[in-house]
Amino acid sequence: MPHSPALGHGSAARSEADPAPDAADGGPVTDPGAGTRIDLDGAADRRLARRLAEESVVLLRNAHGTLPLPPAARIAVVGPNADDPRAMFGCYSFPNHVGIHHPDVPIGIPVESLLGALRAELPDATIRYAPGCEVDSRDEAGFGAATALATGADVCVAVLGDRAGLFGGGTSGEGCDVGDLRLPGVQHELLAALVATGTPVVAVLLAGRPYALDELDDRLAARIQVFFPGAEGGPAIAGVLSGRVCPSGRTPVSVPRRPDGQPTTYLAPPLGHRTEVSSVDPTPRYPFGSGLSYTRFRWSDVQVDGRAPGSEPVRVATDGTVQVSVLVRNVGDRTGTEVVQLYLHDPVAEVTRPVVRLIASVRVPLDPGHAARADFTVPAEAAAYTGRDLYRLVEPGDLELRLSTSSADHRHAVALRLTGPRRRLDDRLPGAVVARVEGAP
Fold it and tell me: One MF term in GO for this entry (predicted)?
C-alpha cells in the first residue's frame, strides 16, 4: 500500500481502511461457501486504490512550471520502469513475491503501466518510448535511441527506480541491501545523458529508496517521487503529470543530497544536523514531509484554545490538553490539498531528544479562494519520552509546537510551559493528538 497520511493520522474512514469491520470487531462472519466467487478487485476497492495512489504521489521539484504537461506536447518517455506494470508494486506484493517465479502467468488484475496510462491521459499528445536501459544492467547500448527521442521532444519523462524483489531478486526489498543511494545499474548515467540533450527532463522515480541524484537534481525540470503506489499507480502518476490531479503527497523519509549519504531519519538530535563538529553537511536535499502543489496556500490566524497567543508561553498542566489551530487559505487558481504538519520541539530533557518530532498532521482540501481551519487537540502526554529509568514520562518545562509544511519548514510556533508534577505513564501509551479540519467543503 502506498504511503498515506490519511491512514497514518486517522482521516480515512473506518470502512475504507478496514475491508471487514464486522469480523474485526468480533461480529458474525458468514461462510460464503466453497463455490462462491470472492471479488478482491471490485469497483469500491479500485476507487480506494486510486485515491490512495493519487494522494501518495510526491512532487519534489517543478522548475519554471514545467508541470502540468501541455495536452498536445511531444513527449519522450524513457526508462526501464515506464512500460512495466510490476514497477507499481513492492517486494511482498503478489506479483513480485510469487509472480516472479511464474513469469508466464499474468498479474491477474488489470494494471496499467505509466506509459499506457499517460497515453490514455493525454490522447492529443505525441508520445514515443524507448527503455534506454534495464533496471540493474550495465549495458548502455540503448542510450542512443533514448537520447534521440529526447532531442526531438518538447519534454522527456524519465521513469526510473527499482525492481522490487526478495533476497537479491530485485534492487529493493527484503534482503536487497545496497551500500549507497545511487540509482541501480546505469540509470544515473542514462538520466545524465537525457539532461545533456537540453530537453526539459521530468524524473519519475518508482523506487523503494530515496535515491540521491547528486548534481543532476538541480538540472531537472521536475522530479516526482512515487515509491510503490499499487494497482492504480499508473493512472495516478499520469493524472499528476497532466494536471488532472493536484499533487498532495509528502515524503515519509528524508532524501539525501549525495549518493553516499544515508536516508537519515529527521528524528535527529542537534549533533545529527549541520554543526561545526563535522565538515560533512547532512542536510537532506528534500527533508521529511516535503512536497509541492500546483496551487498556493496562505497560513494565518494561529489560535491557542480559541484565541491569539500572547508573548508568554501558554501554561498547560502535565495532565492537561491544549488546542492549537491555524487558518489555511487556497490563494491559487485551482483546487488542491494542503498538509499541515505539527511538530514538537523539546529543548531540555533528561535524555537526548530529537530537535523536532512529528506528532500529528491533517490534510486540508480547498477550492480556490476558500479557507478552513486545521485544528489539533494536543494532550501534554504528546511530549512523553522514555527517561533514564526506562519509563515513559511527562515532565514540567518549556516546549514548542511548530505548525509546518515539512520537518524543516516551520510556518508558526506556539510556546508552551508544562506545569505540575512529573508524571510516569508506566506501561500505558501516551494519549494521541486529535487532528481535524473545520470549515472545509
Answer: hydrolase activity, hydrolyzing O-glycosyl compounds
At 96 the three-state DSSP class reads helix
Answer for the pair 420, 319: CB distance below 8 angstroms, yes or no: yes
pLDDT tens digits, residue range 66-122?
999 999 999 999 999 999 999 999 999 988 888 888 888 888 889 999 999 999 999
Phi, psi of 100 (to 5 degrees): -65, -25
Is residue 310 domain-shared with residue 421, that is, in the same domain?
yes
Q: How far apart are CA 62 and CA 368, in angstroms?
A: 20
C-alpha R_g of the chain:
24
Task: Please indicate, yes or no, whether residues 265 and 328 belong to a single structural domain of this protein.
Answer: no
Cell of 418: 508544562
Average pLDDT over every residue of 398-418 = 97
> What residues make up the domain containing 317?
297-438
| Residue 247, preceding peptide bond in cis (omega within 30° of 0) | no
Q: Are 356 and 407 contacting, i.e. CB atoms less than 8 angstroms apart?
A: yes
d(CA 363, CA 361): 7
User: How many other β-carbons are positioned within 10 Å of the β-carbon of residue 222?
Assistant: 25
Block residue for cell numbers 553516499: 260
pLDDT digits (tens, 9 = 90+) for 163-212: 999 998 899 999 999 989 999 999 999 999 999 999 999 999 999 999 99
Residue 231 falls in which region: left (phi positive, over 0), alpha (psi -120 to 50) or beta: alpha
- The CATH number that applies at residue 84 is 3.40.50.1700
Which residue in 239, 268, 266 sits closest to 255, CA to CA?
266
Residue 91 lies in a domain: yes
Q: Looking at this protein, which amino acid is placed at residue 147?
A: T
> Which residues touch 275 (CB under 8 Å, ≥6 apart)?
none
d(CA 313, CA 369): 33
The answer to whether the CB of 231 falls within 8 A of the CB of 107 is no
Q: Residue 140 is placed in which grid cell? A: 548502455
pLDDT of residue 26: 60
- Show Cβ contacts of residue 366 under 8 Å, excluding neighbours closer than 6 positions: 297, 328, 329, 330, 335, 336, 337, 338, 372, 440, 441
User: Does residue 80 sit in the same domain as residue 130?
Assistant: yes
Q: How far is CA 365 from CA 44, 52, 70, in A?
A: 21, 15, 25
CB atoms within 10 A of CB 339: 23
> Is the domain of 235 the same as that of 167?
yes
